[in-house]
Amino acid sequence: MKSLKLSLFSLALLPASTLSAAVVYDFQSESDYDYFDGEVSGWTQSESNPVLVDGTAPLGEVETLDYFGTANKVGVFGTAYNNSPFNATTSVSGALPASTSLVNSQVSLDFAIANDAAVRDSFSIAITDLSSTTVASIIFTPDSGDSTLWTISYTIGGSSGSTTFSLTANAEYSFYFNFNDSTTSLFYGGYGESSSLIATSTTSFDSSAELGDIVISNTQTDFETDAGNSTNVAIFDNIATAVIPEPSVALLGGIAGLGLLRRRRSN
Questions:
Q1: How do residues 141-174 score in pLDDT, each as one tens digit?
Q2: Mean of the pLDDT values across residues 243-263?
Q3: Is 218 within 8 Å of 123 (Cβ atoms)?
Q4: Secondary structure of the chain in HEC code, one letter for each residue
Q5: Is pLDDT of 6 > 50?
Q6: Is residue 267 included in any domain, yes or no?
Q7: Domain-embedded: residue 55
Q8: Membrane-spanning residues where (predicted)?
Q9: Residue 5 lies in a domain
Q10: Phi and psi at residue 261, in whole multiples of 5°?
Q11: Which of 136, 138, 46, 32 lies closest to 94 in space, CA to CA?
Q12: What CATH number does the domain containing 226 carry?
């Protein structure tokens, strides 16, 4: 009879679907058109909202849209909502739960990029520690050959890399950042679907390191007809954290599960 074995490597790559996550931001308690500049609890911006002759042009706000559900409140951020200079990078940052250990933690969110205008922008999702150092990021760059796609690259610690994965305009995805004591792994998949590994890399975090912020950035990548009007926006929701079981705990749980499975097979 074949023996069943648990891989510690696979435990390090444990995807979000197997973890119990606590939602940090789902925007349901916010009002439509609340700005991330002081009106959405827990969030800050890289710069103040520009004030135009006919009113404020927010970098980002909460809206009710048909993303990640029907008539659902989501965060919306990007150049359709600001009047930033050409080729500028702007960002919104949400504070992650205080005193949450970086090691053996996971941060996840649902994410989409709306519209496929001829001139498009780059976006990124980054996780920082308490010192505001980026520990991992996922970067979306317009595909030069297809106006409906953004290519996916990443950074983990001091390393970076490209992938063969891409994001399609208006499609809904879920992204996961897994931080273990010796590896960091990034996953993504269609919203409500299973996830695929984007990348994994060896990392070494101090045991006292804590989660800082989730930072969503937008970079204008070309000159546009009007500054701030490429109509690309990032849409995000259901930002959550979870604890990844330490290998010893997960291993014991797996052994117990295998014991139950064997007992069932013997009956």
A1: 999 888 899 999 999 998 999 999 999 999 999 9
A2: 50
A3: yes
A4: CCCCCCCHHHHHCCCHHHCCCEEEECCCCCCCCCECCCCCCCEEECCCCCEECCEECCCEEEEEECCCCCCEEEEEEEHHHCCCCCCCEEEEEEECCCCCECCCEEEEEEEEEECCCCCCEEEEEEEEECCCCEEEEEEEEECCCCCCEEEEEEEECCEEEEEEEEEECCCCEEEEEEECCCEEEEEEEECCCCCEEEEEEECCCCCCCEEEEEEEEEEECCCCCCCCCCCCEEEEEEEEEEECCCHHHHHHHHHHHHHHHHHHHHC
A5: no
A6: no
A7: yes
A8: 239-261
A9: no
A10: -60, -45
A11: 46
A12: 2.60.120.1160
Q: Provide the residue range defining the domain that includes 88.
A: 20-243
> What is the identity of the amino acid at 223?
F
- 260 neighbors 116 (Cβ within 8 angstroms): no
What pLDDT does residue 48 have? 87
Q: How confident is the model at residue 242 (pLDDT cuts 50, 70, 90)?
A: very high
The one-letter code for the residue type at 89 is T
What is the average pLDDT across 12-24? 65
Sole residue written with tokens 């649902």:
110
Per-residue model confidence (pLDDT) at position 1:
38
Task: Output the pTM of the full model.
Answer: 0.84
Instruction: Provide the β-strand partners of residue 166.
Output: 151
Distances, alpha carbon 3 to alpha carbons 27, 255, 262, 264, in Å: 47, 12, 11, 15
The type of residue at 55 is: G
Whole-number Å distance between alpha carbons of 193 and 17: 9
Identify the weakest region by mean pLDDT among 18-27, 30-39, 243-252: 243-252
Query: Domain tally for the chain?
Result: 1
